[in-house]
Amino acid sequence: MNQPLKVLIVDDEASQRSGLAGMISAWGMTPETAGDGNEALEKLAEFPADVILTDLNMPGLDGFGFLQRLRDAGDMPPTIVLTAYGSVETAVKTVRELGAFWFLEKPIQPGGLEVLIRRAGSHAGLTAEKRNLERQLSYKGSLGQLVGASPRMLEIFTLLQQAGPSKACVLVTGESGTGKEVVARTLHALSQRRQGPFVAINCAALPESLIESELFGHEKGSFTGASERRAGCFEVAQHGTLMLDEIGEMPLPTQAKLLRILEDSKVRRLGGKTEFEVDVRLVAATNKVPEEAVRGGHLREDLYYRLNVFHIHLPPLRDRKEDLQPIAEALLGDLNRKHECRVSDLSPDVLLAFGRYGWPGNVRELRNVLERAVILAGEGTIEPKHLPAFLQDRPASTASAAPAGAPPAAPAPDDLEALRIRIGTTVEEAEKGLILRTLEHTRNNKTRAAEILGISLKTLHNKLKEYGAGKEDAMGA
Ligand SMILES: Nc1ncnc2c1ncn2[C@@H]1O[C@H](COP(=O)(O)OP(=O)(O)OP(=O)(O)O)[C@@H](O)[C@H]1O
Ligand SMILES: [Mg+2]
User: Fold this and answer.
1) Where in the chain is the domain with CATH 3.40.50.2300?
2) How far is the CA of 186 from the centre of ligand 1 (A)?
Protein backbone atom coordinates (compact mmCIF):
# COMPACT_ATOMS: atom_id res chain seq x y z
CA MET A 1 0.00 0.00 0.00
CA ASN A 2 1.14 3.54 -0.67
CA GLN A 3 2.36 5.60 2.26
CA PRO A 4 0.12 8.59 3.01
CA LEU A 5 1.45 11.79 1.46
CA LYS A 6 3.42 13.95 3.90
CA VAL A 7 2.41 17.59 3.60
CA LEU A 8 4.21 20.45 5.35
CA ILE A 9 2.07 23.56 5.90
CA VAL A 10 3.93 26.85 6.38
CA ASP A 11 1.77 29.76 7.47
CA ASP A 12 2.09 32.41 10.17
CA GLU A 13 -1.61 32.29 11.02
CA ALA A 14 -2.43 29.52 13.49
CA SER A 15 -6.04 29.27 12.28
CA GLN A 16 -4.90 28.78 8.67
CA ARG A 17 -2.44 26.11 9.75
CA SER A 18 -4.98 24.17 11.76
CA GLY A 19 -7.70 24.55 9.10
CA LEU A 20 -5.40 23.24 6.37
CA ALA A 21 -4.02 20.49 8.61
CA GLY A 22 -7.60 19.35 9.35
CA MET A 23 -8.47 19.17 5.64
CA ILE A 24 -5.26 17.36 4.81
CA SER A 25 -5.80 14.72 7.52
CA ALA A 26 -9.36 14.28 6.27
CA TRP A 27 -7.95 13.47 2.82
CA GLY A 28 -5.86 10.69 4.37
CA MET A 29 -2.56 12.59 4.21
CA THR A 30 -0.15 13.38 7.04
CA PRO A 31 0.17 17.08 7.84
CA GLU A 32 2.93 18.91 9.73
CA THR A 33 2.98 22.64 10.37
CA ALA A 34 5.47 25.49 10.71
CA GLY A 35 4.94 29.19 11.45
CA ASP A 36 7.60 30.60 9.09
CA GLY A 37 10.35 29.61 6.68
CA ASN A 38 13.00 29.03 9.35
CA GLU A 39 10.81 26.74 11.37
CA ALA A 40 9.85 24.94 8.17
CA LEU A 41 13.51 24.30 7.28
CA GLU A 42 14.03 22.82 10.77
CA LYS A 43 10.91 20.65 10.46
CA LEU A 44 12.02 19.33 7.08
CA ALA A 45 15.07 17.77 8.74
CA GLU A 46 12.83 15.20 10.47
CA PHE A 47 9.69 15.38 8.33
CA PRO A 48 10.63 14.60 4.72
CA ALA A 49 7.64 16.28 3.11
CA ASP A 50 6.34 15.03 -0.24
CA VAL A 51 4.58 18.34 -0.81
CA ILE A 52 4.93 21.76 0.83
CA LEU A 53 2.20 24.37 1.10
CA THR A 54 3.57 27.79 1.95
CA ASP A 55 2.19 31.24 2.55
CA LEU A 56 4.18 34.11 1.02
CA ASN A 57 3.79 36.95 3.50
CA MET A 58 5.16 35.86 6.85
CA PRO A 59 7.30 37.49 9.50
CA GLY A 60 10.73 35.89 9.95
CA LEU A 61 11.77 34.03 6.81
CA ASP A 62 8.98 34.72 4.32
CA GLY A 63 7.76 32.50 1.48
CA PHE A 64 10.15 33.98 -1.08
CA GLY A 65 13.16 33.51 1.19
CA PHE A 66 12.03 30.02 2.09
CA LEU A 67 11.66 29.03 -1.57
CA GLN A 68 15.08 30.48 -2.32
CA ARG A 69 16.68 28.46 0.50
CA LEU A 70 14.96 25.29 -0.69
CA ARG A 71 16.03 25.91 -4.26
CA ASP A 72 19.61 26.65 -3.22
CA ALA A 73 19.68 23.44 -1.18
CA GLY A 74 18.94 21.64 -4.43
CA ASP A 75 16.24 19.19 -3.44
CA MET A 76 13.01 21.04 -3.34
CA PRO A 77 9.84 19.02 -2.88
CA PRO A 78 6.95 20.24 -5.04
CA THR A 79 5.87 23.44 -3.32
CA ILE A 80 2.48 25.05 -3.65
CA VAL A 81 2.39 28.73 -2.82
CA LEU A 82 -0.69 30.09 -1.09
CA THR A 83 -1.08 33.76 -1.70
CA ALA A 84 -3.52 36.10 -0.06
CA TYR A 85 -2.45 39.38 -1.59
CA GLY A 86 -1.47 37.47 -4.68
CA SER A 87 -1.81 39.07 -7.94
CA VAL A 88 -1.31 36.45 -10.59
CA GLU A 89 2.02 38.12 -11.33
CA THR A 90 3.54 37.52 -7.91
CA ALA A 91 2.38 33.97 -7.94
CA VAL A 92 3.67 33.35 -11.44
CA LYS A 93 7.01 34.80 -10.32
CA THR A 94 7.27 32.21 -7.55
CA VAL A 95 6.67 29.49 -10.12
CA ARG A 96 8.97 30.83 -12.80
CA GLU A 97 11.85 32.24 -10.81
CA LEU A 98 11.79 30.28 -7.60
CA GLY A 99 10.68 26.94 -8.94
CA ALA A 100 7.45 26.58 -6.98
CA PHE A 101 5.29 23.78 -8.28
CA TRP A 102 2.18 25.93 -8.50
CA PHE A 103 0.19 28.55 -6.65
CA LEU A 104 -3.28 28.99 -5.22
CA GLU A 105 -4.98 32.19 -4.27
CA LYS A 106 -6.74 32.41 -0.92
CA PRO A 107 -9.48 31.72 -0.02
CA ILE A 108 -8.54 28.18 -0.89
CA GLN A 109 -11.06 26.02 -2.73
CA PRO A 110 -10.71 22.69 -0.92
CA GLY A 111 -11.51 20.62 -4.04
CA GLY A 112 -8.84 22.42 -6.05
CA LEU A 113 -6.26 22.09 -3.29
CA GLU A 114 -6.74 18.37 -2.89
CA VAL A 115 -6.36 17.75 -6.63
CA LEU A 116 -3.28 19.92 -6.68
CA ILE A 117 -1.59 18.22 -3.72
CA ARG A 118 -2.23 14.79 -5.19
CA ARG A 119 -0.86 15.81 -8.57
CA ALA A 120 2.16 17.43 -6.91
CA GLY A 121 2.64 14.35 -4.72
CA SER A 122 2.56 12.03 -7.68
CA HIS A 123 5.42 14.02 -9.15
CA ALA A 124 7.43 14.08 -5.94
CA GLY A 125 9.84 11.48 -7.25
CA LEU A 126 10.44 13.43 -10.41
CA THR A 127 12.06 16.56 -9.05
CA ALA A 128 15.10 15.83 -11.19
CA GLU A 129 12.90 16.22 -14.25
CA LYS A 130 12.39 19.83 -13.47
CA ARG A 131 11.88 20.86 -17.06
CA ASN A 132 9.26 18.24 -17.55
CA LEU A 133 7.56 19.39 -14.38
CA GLU A 134 7.55 22.97 -15.53
CA ARG A 135 5.69 21.99 -18.63
CA GLN A 136 3.03 20.49 -16.46
CA LEU A 137 2.47 23.50 -14.33
CA SER A 138 -1.25 23.53 -14.48
CA TYR A 139 -2.14 21.46 -11.47
CA LYS A 140 -4.20 24.07 -9.85
CA GLY A 141 -7.73 25.11 -9.22
CA SER A 142 -7.49 28.55 -10.73
CA LEU A 143 -5.47 30.84 -12.90
CA GLY A 144 -6.42 34.46 -12.32
CA GLN A 145 -10.19 34.65 -12.64
CA LEU A 146 -10.37 31.34 -14.45
CA VAL A 147 -11.41 28.46 -12.23
CA GLY A 148 -11.43 24.80 -13.17
CA ALA A 149 -10.45 21.34 -12.05
CA SER A 150 -11.30 19.25 -15.10
CA PRO A 151 -8.42 17.83 -17.11
CA ARG A 152 -9.47 20.00 -20.03
CA MET A 153 -9.32 23.19 -17.99
CA LEU A 154 -5.95 22.18 -16.59
CA GLU A 155 -4.71 21.77 -20.16
CA ILE A 156 -6.02 25.25 -20.86
CA PHE A 157 -4.09 26.61 -17.87
CA THR A 158 -0.92 25.15 -19.33
CA LEU A 159 -1.67 26.61 -22.74
CA LEU A 160 -2.34 30.00 -21.16
CA GLN A 161 0.98 29.85 -19.36
CA GLN A 162 2.70 29.14 -22.64
CA ALA A 163 0.81 31.59 -24.83
CA GLY A 164 0.36 34.36 -22.25
CA PRO A 165 3.83 35.90 -22.23
CA SER A 166 4.26 35.92 -26.01
CA LYS A 167 2.88 38.49 -28.42
CA ALA A 168 1.37 35.78 -30.62
CA CYS A 169 -2.27 36.01 -31.64
CA VAL A 170 -4.64 33.69 -29.86
CA LEU A 171 -7.94 32.41 -31.17
CA VAL A 172 -10.39 31.53 -28.41
CA THR A 173 -13.41 29.43 -29.30
CA GLY A 174 -16.29 28.06 -27.30
CA GLU A 175 -20.03 28.35 -26.88
CA SER A 176 -21.53 31.49 -25.43
CA GLY A 177 -20.77 31.90 -21.73
CA THR A 178 -17.87 29.42 -21.59
CA GLY A 179 -15.38 32.07 -20.47
CA LYS A 180 -13.76 33.35 -23.67
CA GLU A 181 -13.44 36.85 -22.30
CA VAL A 182 -12.00 35.59 -19.02
CA VAL A 183 -9.41 33.70 -21.05
CA ALA A 184 -8.54 36.84 -23.01
CA ARG A 185 -8.14 38.80 -19.76
CA THR A 186 -5.98 36.05 -18.29
CA LEU A 187 -3.72 36.11 -21.36
CA HIS A 188 -3.37 39.84 -20.84
CA ALA A 189 -2.62 39.40 -17.12
CA LEU A 190 0.05 36.82 -17.89
CA SER A 191 1.79 38.98 -20.48
CA GLN A 192 4.48 41.66 -20.26
CA ARG A 193 1.81 44.14 -21.34
CA ARG A 194 -0.33 43.59 -18.27
CA GLN A 195 0.23 47.21 -17.18
CA GLY A 196 -1.19 48.34 -20.52
CA PRO A 197 -4.88 48.52 -21.45
CA PHE A 198 -7.20 45.59 -22.14
CA VAL A 199 -9.81 46.55 -24.72
CA ALA A 200 -12.64 44.31 -25.95
CA ILE A 201 -14.79 45.02 -28.98
CA ASN A 202 -17.72 42.92 -30.10
CA CYS A 203 -17.87 42.81 -33.88
CA ALA A 204 -21.43 41.45 -33.83
CA ALA A 205 -22.75 44.37 -31.78
CA LEU A 206 -21.61 47.08 -34.18
CA PRO A 207 -23.32 48.11 -37.41
CA GLU A 208 -21.09 47.55 -40.43
CA SER A 209 -20.92 51.26 -41.08
CA LEU A 210 -19.33 51.92 -37.68
CA ILE A 211 -17.01 49.00 -37.19
CA GLU A 212 -14.02 50.42 -39.06
CA SER A 213 -14.20 53.74 -37.31
CA GLU A 214 -14.43 51.92 -33.97
CA LEU A 215 -11.43 49.79 -34.81
CA PHE A 216 -9.18 52.21 -36.64
CA GLY A 217 -10.52 55.61 -35.51
CA HIS A 218 -11.39 58.51 -37.77
CA GLU A 219 -10.41 62.07 -38.57
CA LYS A 220 -12.87 64.92 -38.19
CA GLY A 221 -15.14 65.14 -41.25
CA SER A 222 -14.09 61.77 -42.67
CA PHE A 223 -17.76 60.75 -42.98
CA THR A 224 -21.15 62.27 -42.22
CA GLY A 225 -21.44 62.50 -38.48
CA ALA A 226 -17.69 62.42 -37.81
CA SER A 227 -17.70 65.75 -36.01
CA GLU A 228 -14.58 65.03 -33.96
CA ARG A 229 -11.35 63.14 -34.49
CA ARG A 230 -11.63 59.86 -32.67
CA ALA A 231 -9.12 57.23 -31.64
CA GLY A 232 -9.92 53.65 -32.59
CA CYS A 233 -9.55 50.51 -30.50
CA PHE A 234 -6.06 49.85 -31.83
CA GLU A 235 -4.90 53.23 -30.53
CA VAL A 236 -6.70 52.85 -27.23
CA ALA A 237 -5.20 49.38 -26.76
CA GLN A 238 -1.65 50.60 -27.55
CA HIS A 239 0.91 48.49 -25.60
CA GLY A 240 -1.94 46.34 -24.36
CA THR A 241 -4.29 43.64 -25.57
CA LEU A 242 -7.21 43.98 -27.98
CA MET A 243 -9.92 41.35 -27.90
CA LEU A 244 -11.93 41.05 -31.12
CA ASP A 245 -15.06 39.22 -30.13
CA GLU A 246 -17.25 37.43 -32.68
CA ILE A 247 -14.56 37.72 -35.31
CA GLY A 248 -16.70 35.83 -37.84
CA GLU A 249 -19.18 38.71 -37.82
CA MET A 250 -16.60 41.21 -39.01
CA PRO A 251 -17.33 42.39 -42.57
CA LEU A 252 -14.94 40.84 -45.10
CA PRO A 253 -13.41 44.17 -46.29
CA THR A 254 -12.63 44.99 -42.64
CA GLN A 255 -11.05 41.56 -42.24
CA ALA A 256 -8.75 42.40 -45.16
CA LYS A 257 -7.69 45.64 -43.44
CA LEU A 258 -7.16 43.82 -40.18
CA LEU A 259 -4.92 41.31 -41.90
CA ARG A 260 -2.79 44.12 -43.28
CA ILE A 261 -2.43 45.63 -39.79
CA LEU A 262 -1.34 42.27 -38.46
CA GLU A 263 1.29 42.05 -41.19
CA ASP A 264 2.88 45.47 -40.80
CA SER A 265 1.65 46.78 -37.40
CA LYS A 266 0.52 50.08 -38.90
CA VAL A 267 -2.90 51.71 -38.65
CA ARG A 268 -4.40 54.62 -40.55
CA ARG A 269 -7.51 56.39 -39.17
CA LEU A 270 -10.47 56.69 -41.56
CA GLY A 271 -9.89 59.84 -43.59
CA GLY A 272 -6.34 60.06 -42.20
CA LYS A 273 -3.25 60.66 -44.32
CA THR A 274 -0.57 59.13 -42.15
CA GLU A 275 -0.11 55.72 -40.68
CA PHE A 276 1.19 55.12 -37.20
CA GLU A 277 2.78 52.15 -35.55
CA VAL A 278 0.70 50.06 -33.21
CA ASP A 279 1.94 47.61 -30.63
CA VAL A 280 -1.13 45.57 -29.75
CA ARG A 281 -1.58 41.91 -28.92
CA LEU A 282 -4.68 40.46 -30.56
CA VAL A 283 -6.98 37.89 -29.05
CA ALA A 284 -9.84 36.91 -31.34
CA ALA A 285 -12.89 34.99 -30.16
CA THR A 286 -15.85 33.28 -31.70
CA ASN A 287 -18.65 31.01 -30.56
CA LYS A 288 -18.78 29.46 -34.02
CA VAL A 289 -16.59 26.69 -35.37
CA PRO A 290 -13.94 28.78 -37.17
CA GLU A 291 -13.31 26.22 -39.90
CA GLU A 292 -17.01 26.33 -40.74
CA ALA A 293 -16.95 30.13 -40.78
CA VAL A 294 -14.06 29.88 -43.26
CA ARG A 295 -15.92 27.35 -45.40
CA GLY A 296 -19.07 29.47 -45.27
CA GLY A 297 -17.11 32.50 -46.48
CA HIS A 298 -17.62 34.50 -43.27
CA LEU A 299 -14.02 34.39 -42.14
CA ARG A 300 -11.08 34.94 -44.47
CA GLU A 301 -8.90 31.88 -44.52
CA ASP A 302 -5.64 33.86 -44.44
CA LEU A 303 -6.87 35.87 -41.45
CA TYR A 304 -7.91 32.66 -39.71
CA TYR A 305 -4.40 31.23 -40.04
CA ARG A 306 -2.86 34.50 -38.94
CA LEU A 307 -5.05 34.63 -35.79
CA ASN A 308 -4.82 30.95 -34.98
CA VAL A 309 -1.21 30.90 -33.77
CA PHE A 310 -2.51 29.53 -30.50
CA HIS A 311 -5.96 28.04 -30.36
CA ILE A 312 -7.73 27.77 -27.02
CA HIS A 313 -11.03 25.92 -27.15
CA LEU A 314 -13.27 26.15 -24.11
CA PRO A 315 -15.48 23.07 -23.93
CA PRO A 316 -19.11 23.55 -22.90
CA LEU A 317 -19.72 23.23 -19.18
CA ARG A 318 -21.78 20.05 -19.68
CA ASP A 319 -18.61 18.33 -20.94
CA ARG A 320 -16.55 19.29 -17.89
CA LYS A 321 -18.79 18.69 -14.93
CA GLU A 322 -15.80 18.49 -12.57
CA ASP A 323 -15.58 22.25 -12.99
CA LEU A 324 -19.11 22.90 -11.71
CA GLN A 325 -18.33 22.81 -8.01
CA PRO A 326 -15.07 24.77 -8.01
CA ILE A 327 -16.49 27.40 -10.36
CA ALA A 328 -19.70 27.64 -8.34
CA GLU A 329 -17.70 28.05 -5.12
CA ALA A 330 -15.56 30.77 -6.66
CA LEU A 331 -18.64 32.55 -8.00
CA LEU A 332 -20.25 32.36 -4.54
CA GLY A 333 -17.37 34.39 -3.15
CA ASP A 334 -17.84 37.05 -5.83
CA LEU A 335 -21.60 37.17 -5.45
CA ASN A 336 -21.43 37.33 -1.65
CA ARG A 337 -19.24 40.40 -1.99
CA LYS A 338 -21.46 41.95 -4.64
CA HIS A 339 -24.69 41.50 -2.69
CA GLU A 340 -23.22 41.69 0.82
CA CYS A 341 -24.48 38.19 1.56
CA ARG A 342 -22.95 35.39 3.62
CA VAL A 343 -23.74 32.24 1.72
CA SER A 344 -21.25 29.56 2.69
CA ASP A 345 -21.88 26.63 0.37
CA LEU A 346 -24.20 24.56 -1.81
CA SER A 347 -26.19 21.63 -0.50
CA PRO A 348 -25.42 18.18 -1.95
CA ASP A 349 -28.86 18.18 -3.62
CA VAL A 350 -28.06 21.43 -5.37
CA LEU A 351 -24.79 19.98 -6.62
CA LEU A 352 -26.66 16.92 -7.87
CA ALA A 353 -29.19 19.10 -9.69
CA PHE A 354 -26.31 21.09 -11.22
CA GLY A 355 -24.68 17.86 -12.35
CA ARG A 356 -27.85 16.65 -14.07
CA TYR A 357 -28.50 19.87 -15.91
CA GLY A 358 -27.11 20.62 -19.37
CA TRP A 359 -26.15 24.31 -18.89
CA PRO A 360 -26.83 25.58 -22.42
CA GLY A 361 -25.77 29.06 -21.27
CA ASN A 362 -22.61 27.62 -19.69
CA VAL A 363 -20.81 29.47 -16.89
CA ARG A 364 -22.77 32.64 -17.46
CA GLU A 365 -25.99 30.75 -16.84
CA LEU A 366 -24.46 29.15 -13.74
CA ARG A 367 -23.56 32.59 -12.48
CA ASN A 368 -27.10 33.86 -13.10
CA VAL A 369 -28.62 30.89 -11.28
CA LEU A 370 -26.25 31.41 -8.35
CA GLU A 371 -26.84 35.14 -8.25
CA ARG A 372 -30.55 34.59 -7.79
CA ALA A 373 -29.91 31.86 -5.22
CA VAL A 374 -27.46 33.99 -3.21
CA ILE A 375 -29.97 36.82 -3.03
CA LEU A 376 -32.78 34.47 -2.00
CA ALA A 377 -30.72 32.59 0.59
CA GLY A 378 -28.80 35.57 1.95
CA GLU A 379 -26.67 33.34 4.17
CA GLY A 380 -25.96 29.72 5.00
CA THR A 381 -26.37 26.97 2.44
CA ILE A 382 -28.01 27.18 -0.96
CA GLU A 383 -30.81 24.60 -1.07
CA PRO A 384 -32.86 23.36 -4.03
CA LYS A 385 -35.67 25.76 -3.04
CA HIS A 386 -33.39 28.66 -3.97
CA LEU A 387 -33.06 27.36 -7.52
CA PRO A 388 -35.33 28.29 -10.42
CA ALA A 389 -38.12 25.81 -11.20
CA PHE A 390 -36.39 24.26 -14.20
CA LEU A 391 -33.57 23.09 -11.94
CA GLN A 392 -35.83 21.87 -9.15
CA ASP A 393 -38.30 19.61 -10.92
CA ARG A 394 -37.15 16.28 -12.21
CA PRO A 395 -39.19 13.84 -14.29
CA ALA A 396 -38.64 11.24 -11.52
CA SER A 397 -40.55 13.44 -9.09
CA THR A 398 -43.71 13.40 -11.21
CA ALA A 399 -45.20 10.58 -9.15
CA SER A 400 -44.95 12.62 -5.94
CA ALA A 401 -47.62 14.96 -7.32
CA ALA A 402 -50.25 12.42 -6.20
CA PRO A 403 -52.08 13.28 -2.97
CA ALA A 404 -50.51 11.78 0.15
CA GLY A 405 -51.82 8.28 0.86
CA ALA A 406 -53.17 7.73 -2.64
CA PRO A 407 -51.66 4.73 -4.42
CA PRO A 408 -49.21 5.97 -6.99
CA ALA A 409 -50.89 5.79 -10.36
CA ALA A 410 -48.86 4.00 -12.99
CA PRO A 411 -47.78 6.79 -15.27
CA ALA A 412 -49.15 6.65 -18.78
CA PRO A 413 -46.24 6.21 -21.19
CA ASP A 414 -46.61 9.82 -22.31
CA ASP A 415 -46.40 11.06 -18.73
CA LEU A 416 -42.90 9.71 -18.37
CA GLU A 417 -41.79 12.67 -20.39
CA ALA A 418 -44.15 15.08 -18.60
CA LEU A 419 -43.07 18.43 -17.30
CA ARG A 420 -44.63 19.39 -13.99
CA ILE A 421 -45.20 23.12 -13.67
CA ARG A 422 -45.99 24.51 -10.28
CA ILE A 423 -48.45 27.38 -9.73
CA GLY A 424 -46.32 30.46 -9.24
CA THR A 425 -44.08 29.65 -12.20
CA THR A 426 -43.91 32.48 -14.69
CA VAL A 427 -44.67 31.87 -18.35
CA GLU A 428 -41.05 32.71 -19.10
CA GLU A 429 -39.78 30.11 -16.63
CA ALA A 430 -42.21 27.50 -17.92
CA GLU A 431 -41.08 28.12 -21.48
CA LYS A 432 -37.46 27.84 -20.46
CA GLY A 433 -38.17 24.63 -18.56
CA LEU A 434 -39.92 23.11 -21.55
CA ILE A 435 -37.19 24.09 -23.97
CA LEU A 436 -34.39 22.80 -21.78
CA ARG A 437 -36.14 19.57 -20.93
CA THR A 438 -36.81 18.95 -24.61
CA LEU A 439 -33.12 19.49 -25.30
CA GLU A 440 -32.25 16.98 -22.60
CA HIS A 441 -34.67 14.57 -24.25
CA THR A 442 -33.00 15.01 -27.64
CA ARG A 443 -29.54 14.81 -26.02
CA ASN A 444 -28.87 18.34 -27.07
CA ASN A 445 -29.80 17.76 -30.70
CA LYS A 446 -31.06 21.28 -31.38
CA THR A 447 -32.59 20.57 -34.79
CA ARG A 448 -34.69 17.76 -33.35
CA ALA A 449 -35.64 19.84 -30.29
CA ALA A 450 -36.76 22.74 -32.47
CA GLU A 451 -38.93 20.31 -34.47
CA ILE A 452 -40.56 18.92 -31.32
CA LEU A 453 -41.11 22.41 -29.94
CA GLY A 454 -42.52 23.66 -33.22
CA ILE A 455 -40.13 26.60 -33.41
CA SER A 456 -37.38 27.47 -35.84
CA LEU A 457 -33.79 26.53 -35.11
CA LYS A 458 -32.95 30.23 -35.12
CA THR A 459 -35.58 30.95 -32.45
CA LEU A 460 -34.20 28.10 -30.38
CA HIS A 461 -30.68 29.48 -30.68
CA ASN A 462 -31.90 32.94 -29.68
CA LYS A 463 -33.72 31.53 -26.66
CA LEU A 464 -30.63 29.61 -25.54
CA LYS A 465 -28.49 32.68 -25.95
CA GLU A 466 -31.01 34.65 -23.91
CA TYR A 467 -30.87 32.10 -21.08
CA GLY A 468 -27.15 32.30 -21.00
CA ALA A 469 -26.67 35.98 -21.59
CA GLY A 470 -29.98 37.69 -21.03
CA LYS A 471 -29.75 38.57 -17.38
CA GLU A 472 -26.11 39.57 -17.28
CA ASP A 473 -26.59 43.19 -18.32
CA ALA A 474 -29.53 43.75 -16.06
CA MET A 475 -27.43 42.54 -13.17
CA GLY A 476 -24.57 44.79 -14.11
CA ALA A 477 -22.10 41.91 -13.92
N1 LIG B 1 -13.66 29.07 -15.71
C2 LIG B 1 -14.34 30.10 -15.14
N3 LIG B 1 -14.14 30.40 -13.86
C4 LIG B 1 -14.80 31.42 -13.28
N5 LIG B 1 -15.70 32.20 -13.90
C6 LIG B 1 -15.94 31.95 -15.18
C7 LIG B 1 -15.27 30.89 -15.86
N8 LIG B 1 -15.71 30.87 -17.12
C9 LIG B 1 -16.61 31.86 -17.23
N10 LIG B 1 -16.76 32.52 -16.07
C11 LIG B 1 -17.72 33.61 -15.80
O12 LIG B 1 -18.85 33.36 -16.63
C13 LIG B 1 -19.32 34.55 -17.22
C14 LIG B 1 -19.25 34.45 -18.73
O15 LIG B 1 -17.91 34.41 -19.16
P16 LIG B 1 -17.40 35.18 -20.47
O17 LIG B 1 -18.05 36.51 -20.59
O18 LIG B 1 -15.93 35.15 -20.49
O19 LIG B 1 -17.99 34.19 -21.58
P20 LIG B 1 -17.87 34.26 -23.18
O21 LIG B 1 -17.40 32.95 -23.63
O22 LIG B 1 -17.05 35.45 -23.56
O23 LIG B 1 -19.38 34.45 -23.61
P24 LIG B 1 -20.00 35.12 -24.97
O25 LIG B 1 -19.69 34.21 -26.11
O26 LIG B 1 -21.46 35.16 -24.71
O27 LIG B 1 -19.39 36.46 -25.10
C28 LIG B 1 -18.50 35.66 -16.63
O29 LIG B 1 -19.18 36.16 -15.51
C30 LIG B 1 -17.22 34.98 -16.23
O31 LIG B 1 -16.58 35.66 -15.20
MG1 LIG C 1 -17.65 37.22 -24.55
Assistant:
1) 6-140
2) 12
